[in-house]
Amino acid sequence: MLPATATRRAALAHSVLLASLFALPGARAADFPDHSVRLVVPQSAGSGGDVVARLLGDKMGSALGASVVVENKPGANGIVAMSYVAKSPADGYTLLLAGVSQMSFNPKLYKNLPYDADKDYTYVAPVVDTPFVLVAGKNSPYKTLPQLIAAAKAAPNAITFASAGAGNSTHLSTELIASGAGIKLKHIPYKGSGPALNAVIGGQVDLMTSVLGSALPQIQGGNVIPLAVLADQRASDLPDVPTLKEAGLNVPPMPGWYAIVGPAGMDKAVVRKLNAAVQAAITDPAINKKLKDLYFVPLQGSAEQIRARADEDAHFWGDFITKNGIQVD
Prior knowledge:
It is a single chain. This protein is α/β, with parallel strands linked by helices. Helix content is about 45%, strand content about 20%. It has helices at about 5-30, 50-65, 80-85, 100-110, 145-155, 170-180, 195-200, 210-220, 270-285, 285-295, 305-325, and strands spanning about 35-40, 70, 95-100, 120-130, 130-135, 160-165, 185-190, 205-210, 225-230, 260-265, 295-300. The strands form two sheets. A six-stranded mixed β-sheet has the order 2-1-3-10-4-11, sandwiched between helices. Helix 2 crosses helix 9. It is globular.
C-alpha cells in the first residue's frame, strides 16, 4: 500500500491530467490557427474548384491570421482527396473543398468506396453553387431542346453526350434530362470537363451538360449551341436560352455546390472560426464579384445547413442512381 502522502500526490497528478485532457479542445480552439492551413482540392489546377479555392485562400488567411495553402489532389472522381483528408488529424489544419459529387453522389455510385461521407467528415461551411447548361456542337441539327428530344425518340442511343467522367455531375445531369424526357442517349466519358467540351466543339460528340462558367466563352464564341440552362432562372448572359422547365422538361436543377469539410471530430469552436473565415471571403466585394463573373453563386450559411443540403441531395440522387442502374466500377 502507498503511503498517504504518495496517495495524495498520485490523486493530484491524476486530477491534473484529467483537467488538461478536458482543456485541450478549448486550448486548441483559442490558439487556432498557429500555423498554415491546407485546403485540399480534389481537382487539377485550373479547374472550377481550384479557381474557387484560390480566390478564397488569401481572404480566409487574412481572417484567420494564418496562410491558407491550396493543394491539388486530383484522381478517381475525388476519391483520392477524400480518402486523404478523412485520414488526416481533425485539428482544422487540413480541409477539403468538396463538391456535391464527392459528398452526395459517390456513396451511391461506388460499391466499395474507401470513405463514409456520413461519418468520416466534419462539415465546416458552404462556399458556392453553380448552374449548368446543355450545349450541342455548332454544326448540330438540334437547335432547341424539343428538337433534340424528338430526334432521340426517333433513334434511341444514336445521339451521344460527353461528360467529365462516369458519375460526375456532367454525367448525371444529362442522364436526368434523358430520364425526364423519356429518351435514351449514349454516354461518352472523358477525363475532365475540358476534353469533354472540346469533343463537342470538335464534333466528335453531340452534346454535353457543362458548368455554365466553362461553357459560356464557347457559347459566346459560336463554338457550341446552348439548348437549355439547368437552373431556376435564365442566365443573365444568355437571356434567350430557356431553363429546362421553360423548354417543357419538368426536372429539378442540377446541384453544383462546393463546401469546405474536414476530418470527423473537429472541435466546434474551430469549425466556427473557419466558417467565419469562409463567410468573410465570399462576402468580400472583390471576391464576390469575381465569383459571380465566373457564374459561381456564393453561399452563406452554417455547417449544419450545408450538411442538410448534402443529405437531401444524397437522398434524391441516390434514388435516381439506383432506379436508373448507374454504377461506377
